Structures are given as C-alpha cells and as structure tokens.
Prior knowledge:
The protein has 68 residues and is mainly alpha-helical. It is built from two helices and no strands. It has helices at 2-33, 42-65.
Amino acid sequence: MKTAGVIALAIVGGLVAGLVLSEIIGIVGMLVFGTPIGFKFLPVYLAAACAVAVTLLYRRSRRRSRPQ
C-alpha cells in the first residue's frame, strides 16, 4: 500500500514539474527566438519517468534497509 502512495505522489510531482518546466521552456523560447517553443506532452512523459524512477529507488531502499 505504501508503494502505491509513493507512485501516486511521484505521478503528481512529475506532472507539476513537467508543467513548470514546459512553461519555462516556452518563456525562454519566446524571449530568445520570438516564438513559443516546447515539447509536446512533456508533463505526461515526466510523470511516467518519475513514477518508474521512484518505484525503482523505493524498492532498492527497502531491500537495503531489511535486517539480515
């Protein structure tokens, strides 16, 4: 159950980070090139990448913390 909560938080965090990063890229593109630039579906891709990365890191940390 904890893993599902961690994954859900990673997805939400990835979406928020993707939105912020997308806006920053758009603003910089507008200032430098005079036209908005960006990556299509960046928040979705970043949310998926965060979910995978957090899952792998969470499992690794739980495996190391087990007493032997």
